[in-house]
Amino acid sequence: AAARAGASVHLLSAEAAMFGAEMAKVIANRALTVWYSVPSALVLLTQVADAAAVSSLRIVFFAGEVYPIKHLQRLRALFPEATLANLYGPTETNVCTYHVVPEVLEADAPLPIGRACENQEVFALDDRLRLVDLGGEGELFVRGPTVMKGYWGNAGKTAEVLMQNPLHDRFDDPTYRTGDLVRRLPGDVFEFIGRRDHQIKSRGYRIELGEIEHALLRHDAVTDAAVVAVPHEELGHALYAFVATQAVGVDEMSLKRHLSTHVPRYMIPKSIAITDALPRTSTGKVDRKGLEESIR
Predict the structure, then answer these.
(1) Residue 57 needs a FRET pair 20 to 30 A away by CA distance; which of 137, 154, 174, 286 works?
(2) DSSP codes, 122-181
(3) In this structure, are residues 38 and 283 in contact, taking their beta carbons and an 8 Å threshold?
């Protein structure tokens, strides 16, 4: 898209992407007009940048992970005139939905992943592969020309996620099941709930790990949060939380007290580890596998 528009592309170095001040310098020195990154990079940017230094940006795209509303409000304040958009789409489909951020954000309302991009179709199906009703929850499916042909050399894995469109059998229609759970909103807009494989059982209760993370992020001092579940012989799964904060005086007990006002008792993790920053993968997402291995 940049080449077609005659624009130049500037890639941030791994070092610059770790420091908000360095990102602000790149934006100012190169007069960048469009930004695209994971939310965690933008969180770092909004902590240090002033509006004058980054005033060249007119469009800010983000994707790859949930953007906590309290951090998004800071982004909106930093770029009051810019177009902000939440993009969603697994590697297997490319970006398939988008949501333009409104000027005013509700404090506790999750940011939708939006509606289908042009020339693509997304829909949510229940466990019986039926379309969910308005307000209902289900797994998101994607069809269209950007859906992959399959995994190279792995027909078994391809068959697990790439299937004939469950809504008809009239013609060949490969459809990708994302494994992401969503809620259907008016206008065929979707709200991300969490990963199907992040929905676990503990003490007999069905738990969505994203709900606990969302509750942790409501704490004023928490900048990032991740919850992992480890198989447990008696409980089914034991929950462990990891939070990032730069604040002094935040401890495990105060975070558990905070959680107790937002989630049921059975959703409070066995332990909450506090760190300056959560580990990231090469794509900038939270390294959940690494966190799980640190427990085992």
Answers:
(1) 286
(2) EEEE-TTS-BPPTT-EEEEEEESTTS-S--TT-HHHHHHHEEE-TT--SS--EEEEEEEE
(3) yes
pLDDT digits (tens, 9 = 90+) for 25-53: 999 999 999 999 988 889 889 888 788 88
Each residue of 125-151: pLDDT tens digit?
999 999 999 999 999 999 999 999 999
Please say whether the dihedral angle defined by the alpha carbons of residues 41, 46, 47 and 50, taken in this order, is positive or negative: positive
Q: CA-to-CA distance for 225 and 65, rounded, in angstroms?
A: 12
Task: Quick: pLDDT tens for 228-271.
Answer: 988 876 677 889 999 998 888 889 999 999 999 999 999 999 99
- Tell me how far apart the alpha carbons of residues 199 and 111 are, in angstroms, rounded to a whole number: 20
State the Cα–Cα distance between residues 223 and 190, nearest whole angstrom.
25
**DSSP code string of 250-289:** --HHHHHHHHHTTS-GGGS-SEEEEESS--B-TTSSB-HH
- 72 three-state secondary structure: helix
Among 96, 67, 65, 107, which Cα is nearest to 84's? Answer: 67
Token pair of 160, please? 């697990």
Asked whether the beta carbons of 60 and 79 are under 8 A apart, the reply is yes
Q: Rounded to an integer, what distance in angstroms lies between the CA atom of residue 131 and that of residue 128?
A: 9
What is the C-alpha separation between 285 and 39, in angstroms, rounded? 9
**CA 122 – CA 143 distance, rounded (Å):** 6
Q: Ramachandran region of residue 129, left (φ > 0), alpha (ψ -120 to 50) or beta? A: left
Could you give the CA distance from residue 48 to residue 36 in angstroms, rounded to a whole number? 18
